[in-house]
Amino acid sequence: MPSTARIALNRPLRRLFDYLVPEGLIVTPGQRVKIPFGRQQAIGLIVETNIEPPEGISLKPLHNALEEWPALPNETFQLLSWASNYYQHPLGECLFTALPPALRKGRPAMEKAEDWWQACGSSAALPANAHKQKNLLDWIAQHKQGAKSSDIIKAGFSRPQLKALCDKELIRAATPANDISEGRHAETIAAPELSDAQCEAASQLPLPEGGFSASLLYGITGSGKTEIYLHYLKQNLTAKDQALVLVPEINLTPQTVARFQRYFGERIQVWHSALNDSQRLSAWLKIRNGEPVILIGTRSAVLLPFTSLKTLIVDEEHDSSYKQGEGFRYSGRDVAVYRAHLNRCPVILGSATPSLESYQNALGGKYQLIRLEERAGNALPPSISLLDIRSRPLEGGLSRPVLQALGQTLDSGNQALVFVNRRGFAPVMMCFDCGHMVECPRCDTRLTYHRRDRAMRCHHCEYQASATETCPKCKSDAFKPVGQGTEQTEDILATNFPDTPIVRVDRDSTQRKGSIQSILKQVDSGKPCILVGTQMLAKGHDFPNVTLVIVINADGGLFSVDFRAPEQLIQTLLQVSGRAGRGSKPGKVVVQTCHSDHPLLKTLCHGRYLDMADQLLEEREAGQFPPFRAMVIFRAEADTMEQSLQILDSIKPLAKAPGIEIWGPLPALIARRADRYRAQLVLNTDNRKRLNILLTGICQTLERKKLPKGTRWMIDVDPQETG
Ligand code: ADP
Ligand code: ZN
Ligand code: ZN
């Protein structure tokens, strides 16, 4: 019998394709092949060999294998197959996520050699009017080790200019300089000694040779978790081992990468969305070739084809960016735990504010709970107090006592941070004559006023319009911003503290400046200043001179319909608070609220996260929410709400089974977004296995169904957002 293979394609299809394997070719699962597909060619990945094709179908032979080895080694292949089933996402798309873009497109699995150039003549030899060539020659001459063509082009020169210099023998081909960033050349340095508390925590971490284990390292902000990771890896990785350190967003915290590089030098590789295709391919090849890399990466790094992975670390494991919000909706953290299990190695989940899922796993004995409740060095945990702002006059959201506290902080030579959870100037523009509020014409939301660019913007679609001075409806000039955004707070602070730099950090300001780092330079100087910003400021930064943190308003998450909102609120508040007093000076946090008697906020003042987590877990259990039950959401979007509800209604009978609760279908919280009508159906169960089997059937059925044009459905297992 001729040999056959079942192949997955990078398409959103819940099916595989069978082919004949040409004689003499041996293929294995995970291997890349080129196949005829319709009238075209496609790149596929072998899923199974020697299958029995359905009768009466004559198979086409596949063209060839792109390499002799499987691009996805066994463990990675198994991981992705599991994830495909768990998250109910088509296998082909899951498998292809583990390939760098170049390999998805069928390019060879090797790095393209770059041409390098070195100067070997003087610009005096050039005609006086050849300014461009002269500049280029000078530019290349500055790079003593040689310059890469791609960098030369990036610097604004052209290939013909390069060729002209080459023809005149003013430059010549060079051997490549080691193409890596500066930090990597740094001498690796010894880690500072761990404190007693850190040692105690570190000694509880299981060793790589001990097989699978999951540990939840609960360490308060500034307790030195990162230092523990560094020590652990330094002590326990052999020269051949690979390790993975997942972080939520690398761009926000390049200091972390720099710290790892100082310890491990060239072993450190990074993986994140800002890499270009060739950088991705290069990192991917190192990992696949089993080089002993320590990879610091965002979510998708967990899917890469490691061959000798000995430890996984998930830093800030509670961070919602570990969950992919579209397409293959996996949780990088949860996949990391499964990967450690498959691979029989430890996984360490670290956070000052662990997710309720991980904390419950620790309480239930699945994970080991390691506590680190002292700050590293001389730093003390910040003191947190509530300030009730009912009936207090506010200026741009700031109360008198808060403005006074800010003044005192600056006077004593320190820095302060003001946390506002909205960017822009104000979330609503309202007419105080006719009551009109400016809405997005395409969404069921209001437009945010951005005063810096005189624009009204929708934060849910691309819509924007110019801001008007008067009410667009009745032309009244009693047309005013309502509520606070970062721009407004920045203005008020600038008025109150005219001699102090105010540093705004939000999506708008970082986009304008290129990066958060360039903005934070001013803060690094250590001189008095006030930082104003959103969530972005809560993430892992070390601001040693910030001694006061103000939270403008804590109430957003207290009464939300999203069952995760209180957890996220507390996590954000504690993470922001954690920016205070990280140096030798003690920190103070003031939280403005209209609900100072709310039990959750009262517990916040003790600063003990696990107490709040206990409280929140009780509520989750009472409401039968995750982590006590599994949740899955089907979402639909269409040109009308009826169509969306119809698709979801058709799922209901298929999902009926004992132990499975069905809620909905209901319109989503923002029912219309970018002119699409969205609805959702929630399934909730204590029998994950049974639900998973049902889901496979439901997804197959939906995929076969002919849906009206423009109608889409999605499935989200363990959803992070439930609105
Ligand atoms: P976390 O990751 O828990 O927020 P970090 O590892 O970033 O904490 O440590 C917080 C600060 O304390 C950093 O500035 C770090 O350099 C410092 N630090 C950590 N451990 C020690 C130690 N053992 N001795 C001195 N300083 C330390
Ligand atoms: Zn009006
Ligand atoms: Zn909109």
Write the layout of secondary structure elements.
Layout: E1 4-9, E2 17-20, E3 32-37, E4 40-49, E5 64-65, H1 74-87, H2 91-97, H3 101-104, E6 116-119, H4 131-142, E7 147-148, H5 149-154, H6 159-167, E8 171-174, H7 196-203, E9 213-219, H8 225-236, E10 242-246, H9 254-264, E11 268-271, H10 277-288, E12 294-297, E13 309-314, H11 332-343, E14 346-351, H12 356-363, E15 368-372, E16 383-388, E17 394-395, E18 398-399, H13 400-411, E19 415-419, E20 428-431, E21 448-450, E22 455-457, E23 464-466, E24 479-482, H14 486-496, E25 502-505, H15 507-513, H16 516-524, E26 530-533, E27 546-551, H17 565-577, E28 588-593, H18 599-604, H19 609-622, E29 630-638, H20 641-655, E30 660-673, E31 676-685, H21 688-704, E32 712-717
Parallel strand pairs: 9-14, 9-15, 10-12, 10-13, 11-12, 13-14, 16-28, 19-26, 19-27, 25-26, 27-28
Antiparallel strand pairs: 1-2, 1-4, 3-4, 3-5, 6-7, 6-8, 17-18, 20-24, 21-22, 22-23, 29-31, 29-32, 30-31
The structure holds adenosine-5'-diphosphate and zinc ion (ZN) (2 copies).
Adenosine-5'-diphosphate is lined by residues 192-195, 198, 219, 221-227, 376-377, 542.
